Amino acid sequence: MSDWKDLFQGHILDRGEAYYFDGAVLELHKTEHGYHAVVEGTEDYEVDIEMEGGRVCEMYCSCPYAEDGNNCKHMAAVLFEIEEQNGEDILAEETCPDAQEQEVKELLYYVFECPQNNLVHIYKLKEICTDKEWEDYRKQILKNPKNYNILYPFMEKEGMYEPMLECLKKETFTYNLDRYENVLKEKFPEQVRDIYISYLHHEAERAGNRKRYRELMKYLKKIRRYPGGKEKASEIAKNWRAMYYRRTAMMDETGKAGF
Ligand SMILES: [Zn+2]
Hints:
It is built from 13 helices and 6 strands. It is an alpha+beta fold. The chain folds into 3 domains: 2-92, no CATH class; 96-158, no CATH class; 160-259, no CATH class. The chain is elongated, with a radius of gyration of 28 Å. The N and C termini lie far apart (75 Å). Zinc ion binds next to helix 2. Zinc ion (ZN) binds next to helix 2.
């Protein structure tokens, strides 16, 4: 147990004290578990300080710095104000074991039982678990079909490019491949090229109007920009001419695209 001031970096504490002296702490009032206040800054920020037996347990602030998991100057300003109003010292307990355990439980539930629309909760979990746990959690997150929305951003953030390629190979649309093409093309040019090629085979069979043919040409040209891609693209165009010679619009578009 230590003084609450130990929860802050020196310069943050100084700025918090300056805020407090400037009267930036407004509307300080008691809540069920501690205090709530509004702190006037670049914007008005909402601060909650949770306390247990005169000790600081948890702190929240709506500013961007706190959102990244830091203890901010607004929290410090509020604590100066609380101390001043109560005329007694406030202590800090580094961890409130019960509260922390509860938080972990809630996070686990949230991450594994609910569909994720962003990476916020996943990375909160990463922050509080061990490396070994994370390895396991990460696998579970990737396997969960509910997480399709965040699958690619997550793999990108984790630097999991090979698993990303494997997933892309199974897709029938190029939306995600197009999105991550720049990231992947430097590391795996041949593989990316080949995924586009297999997409083209698949799509050429199903395409039935000029709009789709044009789309095919866009990808055929794209393939040309990959290593060995010129030959591959010409080969594909040659096959199309042989297979689809009855599709006049497609032949027309192939010609216009320069094949
Ligand atoms: Zn803040």
